[in-house]
Amino acid sequence: MKVLVTAATGYLGRAVAQRLQSAGHHVSAMARSEASLRAVTAAGFQPVRGDLTDPLSVRAAVAEVDAVIETAAADNESATEILLEAVTGTAKRYVRTSGTSVFTELSGGESSDTVHAEDPAFEPIPPVQHRFNLDRRVVAAAATGTHTVVLRPGMIYGGGGSEQLPVLLRAAMRDRVSRYMGSGLNRYPNVFLDDVAQAYVLAVESAPAGGEYNIAADEATMREIAEGIAQVLGLEPAVSATMEEMSEAIGLLYALGLSSNARVDASKIRAELGWTPQGPSLLDDLVHGSYQKVWGHREVSLQTGDVPR
Ligand SMILES: NC(=O)c1ccc[n+]([C@@H]2O[C@H](COP(=O)([O-])OP(=O)(O)OC[C@H]3O[C@@H](n4cnc5c(N)ncnc54)[C@H](OP(=O)(O)O)[C@@H]3O)[C@@H](O)[C@H]2O)c1
């Protein structure tokens, strides 16, 4: 299959593109800058100059492929509309990246027993309503014959990078203290980078039109993660923080997100697409694996951004 990946220079997109190529697919990689074009060419993908905010470039790129996998901009409405328009009336597949964050339940670091399956009638809290509405918009296109699929990965980890873990690692490294909010018993689903990439391959190959899937292999409490970070950085045991302290350390949005629950049931992708995650657990990869290797026992220069994403 010829597959366009919209963000093959990104943390998730690069892993998806590599996995697609290993599975025998032809990968074109949309890139919006000279540096990104050079990076995707060096990685062995077919470079396609384009920007998700530019309908002409998206249309031209999508015209050449059988499927497009969007891994750049989960909250970008115009990019979503442009992609939908580009695949409507064709047999092309469009796989959208959303996230389990749509199920965010604010709890100030306390636990919750609520676990969410892929429920179309779910009513998200306002900060993530927009992302969920875009999911619904993409799924709804299947009713008129467009082959759309929505994937919702949990917190992705692996290779010492990603989004949330480096945010917490940087703050702990800077302040010499690792924090969790309240009791830290709030849970977030997680998934290893190679496993999430495999889920994308399975989805583009065989997910039915209108399919939506949570992608998570496990979950961890924020306290466990904070304790792991303290261990990696050789700090004293993690401490409980207030919302104010957490916001000051990592910003309000991350503080809200990382003190919430967003627990999901991800059995559907296992049952329907045969997904079988195999990576190490998040805590294992953090304390003994890639994060220990990249972040442990090392003074990283925060000024030069000498840290992986
Ligand atoms: N990381 C996670 O744990 C996680 C979990 C669930 C969902 N997600 C979602 O997955 C998506 C990707 O996350 P990530 O962690 O891989 O982010 P990332 O490493 O920052 O990658 C973002 C990528 O998007 C590209 N991009 C941004 N705007 C673009 C545009 N207008 N046109 C073309 N390319 C554009 C960037 O290209 P340049 O190289 O040109 O900047 C980059 O390759 C996000 O929507 C995120 O919310 C991530």
Radius of gyration: 19 Å
Give the beta-strand count. 14
Give the percentage of residues in beta strands: 15-25%
Query: Per CATH, which architecture of the largest domain?
Result: 3-Layer(aba) Sandwich
Task: Determine the N-to-C terminus distance.
Answer: 29 Å
Q: How would you describe the shape?
A: globular
Summarize the biggest pleated sheet. 7 strands, parallel
Provide the spatial order of strands within the biggest beta sheet. Answer: 3-2-1-4-5-7-11
Count of DSSP-assigned helices = 13
In helices, the fraction of residues equals: 40-55%
The average pLDDT is 95
Indicate the multimeric state.
single chain
Q: Helix-strand pattern, N to C?
A: EHEHEHEHEEHEEHEEHEEHEHHEHHH
Bound molecules: NADP nicotinamide-adenine-dinucleotide phosphate
Classified by CATH, the class of the largest domain is Alpha Beta
Number of individual domains: 2
* Protein structure class: alpha/beta
Explain what the structure shows.
- With 309 residues, the chain is an alpha/beta fold.
- The chain folds into 2 domains: 2-107 and 116-156 and 191-216, Rossmann fold (3-Layer(aba) Sandwich), CATH 3.40.50.720; 158-189 and 219-295, UDP-galactose 4-epimerase, domain 1, CATH 3.90.25.10.
- It contains 13 helices and 14 strands.
- A 7-stranded parallel sheet has the order 3-2-1-4-5-7-11, with helices on both faces.
- Helix 4 links the parallel strand 4 and strand 5.
- The longest helix is centred in the middle third of the chain and has 15 residues, at 126-140.
- The two termini are 29 Å apart.
- It binds NADP nicotinamide-adenine-dinucleotide phosphate.
